[in-house]
């Protein structure tokens, strides 16, 4: 299916709503039936019909159809946040006594789900260095059910060889789940590589304007319908029709935003690569990166995140560099119009090291600004340290 068709036409039945170009926000909690027979039918197919907005809503359905198509998945289901989608996907595949092998250093709340939340319900998790797929194989136990991937992963942007991990999962009849948020549904297609369940934080690139939160799960229809009847309907972490509408609006410009972000990021990285105050750049799309070939093989393009390690052994210098930047906002999240930094030094306080990452690591997100504008800002901040 053409991306242009998906983003501009798929799921949009304009004659149903006055030929409006922008879809309507169907702000209703319930949908009425005029006969008992209709009601009976609705109850039997709740996953497929518009009956109650905690289940399905037409504005949300439109978003689900488009993202499923972008991912090449049979079906999708939207949530009120990325972590709701991650949690529902994982919970749907395990029960007490089961075991998960998860990539180490995943997104922070995925880490909390794996390390703190699931153990309360008798689910064990082993975290592995995902850069070698054999580490997944070696961690498999008789009670393993799920191999969990996040590629690239948070902060260090390490990749997992998706096809290789899928092959291992298939040998052992295990389910694979991947968080594809960093790569977007445009630049990496895990379903085509055999992954069972793909999740996204739609808050990031899909929304794209730092004004909405959402999450999505893409998988086979049968898997999505099982999640609908289980985790989705019981935990109730739904996406509101208005937020679905904002995400639909974000989707319209996803390809142009990503192209621009990819190009600007390469320019900023090229500048940082030659800078004497940068010790290391964590970005798989530079030829010197050990996973460069894999990045080229399984991703269509780079996106806007990378980290740098500043050449300093003083935390004050890191703080000074970050405080000196005038056009990079300091904030959590990413994927919007605005460039951001997130210094690991913020998690360090008076010798109380809370992070497993070095204090001089700074995560960058490149937004939609001009590259010169960002590079000049970096230049003046480097001059201060
Ligand atoms: C932000 C993020 C999430 C969580 O998404 P929310 O929308 O903030 O709940 C999950 N995975 C990754 C990789 C993220 O960056």
Automatic annotation (TrEMBL):
Q: Which domain of life is it from?
A: Bacteria
- Would the keyword tRNA processing turn up in this protein's UniProt record? no
**Pfam families of this UniProt entry?**
Cys_Met_Meta_PP (PF01053)
Cofactor(s) the protein requires to work: pyridoxal 5'-phosphate
Output the InterPro entries linked to this UniProt entry.
Cys/Met-Metab_PyrdxlP-dep_enz, Cys_met_metab_PP, PyrdxlP-dep_Trfase, PyrdxlP-dep_Trfase_major, PyrdxlP-dep_Trfase_small
Keywords (alphabetical) are: Pyridoxal phosphate
Q: Which PANTHER family match?
A: CYSTATHIONINE GAMMA-LYASE, TRANS-SULFURATION ENZYME FAMILY MEMBER
The record's similarity note reads:
Belongs to the trans-sulfuration enzymes family.
Q: What is this protein called?
A: Trans-sulfuration enzyme family protein
């Amino acid at each position: 299916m053409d991306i242009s068709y998906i983003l501009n036409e798929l799921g949009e039945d304009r004659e149903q709503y006055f030929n409006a170009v922008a879809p309507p926000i169907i702000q209703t909690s319930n949908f009425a039936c005029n006969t008992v027979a209709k009601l009976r039918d609705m109850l039997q197919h709740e996953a497929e019909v518009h009956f109650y907005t905690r289940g399905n809503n037409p504005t949300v359905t439109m978003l689900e159809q488009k993202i499923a198509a972008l991912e090449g998945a049979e079906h999708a289901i939207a949530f009120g946040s990325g972590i709701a989608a991650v949690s529902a996907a994982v919970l749907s595949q395990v029960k007490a006594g089961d075991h998960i092998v998860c990539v180490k250093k995943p997104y922070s709340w995925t880490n909390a789900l794996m390390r703190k939340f699931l153990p309360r319900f008798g689910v064990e998790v082993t975290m592995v260095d995902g850069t070698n797929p054999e580490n997944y194989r070696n961690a498999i136990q008789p009670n393993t059910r799920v191999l969990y991937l996040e590629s690239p992963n948070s902060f260090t942007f390490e990749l997992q060889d998706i096809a290789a991990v899928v092959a291992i999962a298939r040998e052992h009849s295990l389910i694979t789940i991947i968080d594809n948020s960093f790569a977007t549904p445009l630049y990496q297609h895990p379903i085509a590589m055999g992954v069972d369940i793909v999740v996204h934080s739609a808050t990031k690139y899909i929304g794209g304007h730092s004004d909405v939160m959402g999450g999505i799960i893409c998988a086979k229809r049968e898997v999505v319908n099982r999640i609908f009847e289980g985790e989705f309907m019981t935990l109730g972490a739904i996406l509101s029709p208005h937020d679905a509408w904002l995400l639909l609006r974000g989707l319209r410009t996803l390809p142009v935003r990503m192209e621009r972000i990819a190009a600007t990021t390469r320019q900023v990285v090229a500048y940082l690569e030659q800078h004497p105050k940068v010790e290391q750049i964590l970005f798989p799309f530079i030829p010197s990166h050990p996973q460069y070939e894999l990045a080229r093989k399984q991703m269509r393009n780079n996106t806007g995140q990378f980290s740098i390690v500043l050449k300093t052994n003083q935390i004050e210098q890191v703080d000074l560099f970050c405080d000196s930047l005038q056009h990079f906002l300091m904030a959590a999240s990413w994927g919007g119009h605005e460039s951001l930094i997130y210094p690991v030094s913020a998690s360090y306080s008076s010798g109380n090291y809370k992070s497993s990452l070095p204090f001089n690591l700074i995560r960058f997100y490149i937004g939609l600004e001009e590259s010169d504008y960002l590079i000049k800002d970096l230049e003046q901040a480097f001059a201060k340290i």
